[in-house]
């Protein structure tokens, strides 16, 4: 039995990871300040004596004897990370320093949840890990993008300077049950709007693309990455390479929910990436043939069922 710390464990992805690692017979500490996460995401785990919740802000140091750390604490939706940009960058940078400091002190292996946002509005398509990105350092997305880039730098430097065992994954747009219905991300927005019969808000002309990964596929990749060969540090892309326009996504959600909602267009936010698709050849090679199994239609169906029960 391993002792595993998950920062941001009460969030969307973190709650699925807590459940998976508990089911595999591990002891899990879920650390969260509940900025975007919620106790309700992990409530069914509370009966398990090997599960522990800690209310803590990762910008302050934390100490626990653990074998592995998954560092997920950080708001992920543009609406939430732009709400208090200084806090967002502090969470990424000071959170990384505190997590790496803990890993160094107790000899734990630590995995950083980085993001496809490190590629910015990419000029190379699809994006391989070798691409250094096209990021505005002073725009409205910079607190998140540059915070995550700096965290990657810190992870590499703690490895090189202090020999900390690190892993870096770059997560592409992920969706599924436990997304916060008001966090403003496109999949949750469209589903909630469709179920309520409200207008579906497409930003811009809707021709911008994203590649959507169902959360179970991501969690499988995260666990495989943590258990991968110690010499493989990443960064490695984890995402579903099937790319859709936001218009296609809206039409799919309307069809799956049988909604009468109509599509309206709103202004495109500043620095909104025009396209995004992961090159997952490295993940396939290094993570025992990992690739996403759940396609958009099936994953949307499961997510719609979740939001129906919530609303
Ligand atoms: P989320 O907002 O649901 O989860 C983040 C969690 O971190 C929340 O529970 C929140 O309360 C917690 N948190 C925020 N600031 C904190 C702080 N200072 N101290 C302690 N806890 C704090 O988002 P998510 O989608 O689950 O994302 C999890 C991680 O994966 C994030 O680091 C995010 O950047 C990364 N990621 C997610 C996606 C995606 O599409 N879901 C894509 C790329 C990267
Ligand atoms: N988007 C949209 N309508 C919404 C929310 C988002 O058209 O109600 C668009 C947004 O402009 C972006 C894409 O959907 O082009 C994905 O947005 P999201 O916030 O989910 O993630 P990110 O931009 O970080 O990939």
UniProtKB/TrEMBL annotation:
GO molecular function, one term: UDP-glucuronate decarboxylase activity
Cross-referenced Gene3D superfamilies: NAD(P)-binding Rossmann-like Domain (3.40.50.720)
Major enzyme class: lyase
Coiled-coil region(s): none
Pathway: Nucleotide-sugar biosynthesis; UDP-alpha-D-xylose biosynthesis; UDP-alpha-D-xylose from UDP-alpha-D-glucuronate: step 1/1
Keyword match Lyase: yes
Main location: Golgi
EC number(s) on file: 4.1.1.35
Superkingdom classification of source: Bacteria
Cofactor(s) needed for function: NAD(+)
Membrane topology: Single-pass type II membrane protein
NAD(P)-binding domain location: 5-302
Compartments (UniProt record): Golgi apparatus, Golgi stack membrane
Signal peptide: none
Keywords, comma-separated and alphabetical: Decarboxylase, Golgi apparatus, Lyase, Membrane, NAD, Signal-anchor, Transmembrane, Transmembrane helix
Family: Belongs to the NAD(P)-dependent epimerase/dehydratase family. UDP-glucuronic acid decarboxylase subfamily.
PANTHER family for the chain: UDP-GLUCURONIC ACID DECARBOXYLASE 1, UDP-GLUCURONIC ACID DECARBOXYLASE-RELATED
Protein name: UDP-glucuronate decarboxylase
Source organism (scientific name): Lutibacter holmesii
């Amino acid at each position: 039995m391993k002792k595993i710390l998950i920062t941001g464990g009460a969030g969307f992805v973190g709650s699925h990871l807590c459940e998976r690692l508990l089911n595999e017979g591990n002891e899990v500490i879920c650390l969260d300040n509940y900025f975007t996460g919620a106790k309700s995401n992990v409530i069914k785990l509370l009966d398990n004596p090997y599960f522990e919740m800690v209310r803590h802000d990762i910008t302050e140091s934390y100490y626990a004897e653990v074998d592995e750390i998954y560092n997920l604490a950080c708001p992920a939706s543009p609406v939430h990370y732009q709400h208090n940009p200084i806090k967002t960058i502090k969470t990424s940078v000071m959170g990384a320093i505190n997590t790496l400091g803990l890993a160094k002190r107790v000899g734990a292996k630590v995995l950083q949840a980085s993001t496809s946002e490190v590629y910015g509005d990419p000029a190379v398509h699809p994006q391989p890990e070798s691409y250094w990105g096209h990021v505005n350092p002073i725009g409205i997305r910079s607190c998140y993008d540059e915070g995550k880039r700096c965290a990657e730098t810190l992870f590499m430097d703690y490895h090189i300077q202090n020999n900390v065992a690190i892993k870096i994954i770059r997560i592409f747009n992920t969706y599924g049950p436990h997304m916060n219905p008001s966090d403003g991300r496109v999949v949750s927005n469209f589903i909630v709007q469709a179920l309520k019969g409200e207008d579906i808000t497409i930003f811009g002309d809707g021709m911008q693309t994203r590649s959507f990964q169902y959360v179970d596929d991501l969690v499988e990749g995260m666990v495989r990455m943590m258990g991968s060969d110690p010499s493989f540090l990443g960064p490695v892309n984890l995402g579903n390479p099937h790319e859709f326009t936001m218009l296609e996504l809206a039409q799919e959600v309307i069809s799956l929910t049988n909604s009468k909602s109509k599509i309206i267009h709103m202004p495109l936010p500043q620095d909104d990436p025009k396209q995004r698709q992961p090159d997952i050849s490295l993940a396939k090679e290094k993570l025992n043939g990992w690739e996403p199994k759940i396609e958009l239609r099936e994953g949307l169906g499961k997510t719609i069922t979740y939001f129906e029960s919530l609303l």
